[in-house]
Amino acid sequence: MNKFNVEFTDTFNGEANYHWVNRKEIIVKEDATQSQIMRAAKRAVYITGCKGVTESYGDGYIFRPYGQNTILFVNYEEN
């Protein structure tokens, strides 16, 4: 099982602002795809079904929802 830290926060001028933040931890199977990881992360912070753009970098992802001033960070946590 893999553990990920999830942070959903507001943005200011397109950058993370952290005026408010919702932090969660998710656990997914070792062979989980990017899509499965992102669905679990979005479910954890109550934005299931929200459309946007996902960027992949190293051990994590950034999701920018359309039409919102928010951003979602999903970062792999080593055990």
Q: In percent terms, what proportion of residues is strand? A: over 45%
Summing up helix and strand content along with how strands pair, one would put the structural category as: mainly beta
Q: State the strand order across the main sheet.
A: 2-1-5-4-3
Q: Uncertain regions: pLDDT < 50 for 5+ in a row? A: none
Question: Which outline best applies?
Answer: globular
Report the sheet with the most strands, covering strand number, pairing sense and barrel closure: 5 strands, antiparallel
Name the helicity range. 10-25%
Q: What is the distance, rounded to the nearest whole angstrom, between the alpha carbons of the first and last residues?
A: 10 Å
Can you count the helices?
1
Helix and strand pattern:
EEHEEE
Q: How many domain regions?
A: 1
Number of strands: 5
Topology:
Elements: E1 2-12, E2 15-28, H1 34-44, E3 52-57, E4 60-65, E5 70-77
Antiparallel strand pairs: 1-2, 1-5, 3-4, 4-5
Tell me about this structure.
There is one protein chain. The chain has 79 residues and is mainly beta. Helix content is 14%, strand content 57%. The protein is globular and about 35 Å long. It has one domain. A five-stranded antiparallel β-sheet has the order 2-1-5-4-3, with helices on one face. The termini are close together. It contains one helix and five strands.
Produce a short descriptive summary.
The chain has one helix at 34-44, and strands at residues 2-12, 15-28, 52-57, 60-65, 70-77. It is mainly beta.
Key features of this structure:
79 residues; 5 strands; five-stranded antiparallel beta sheet; mainly beta; 14% helix; single chain
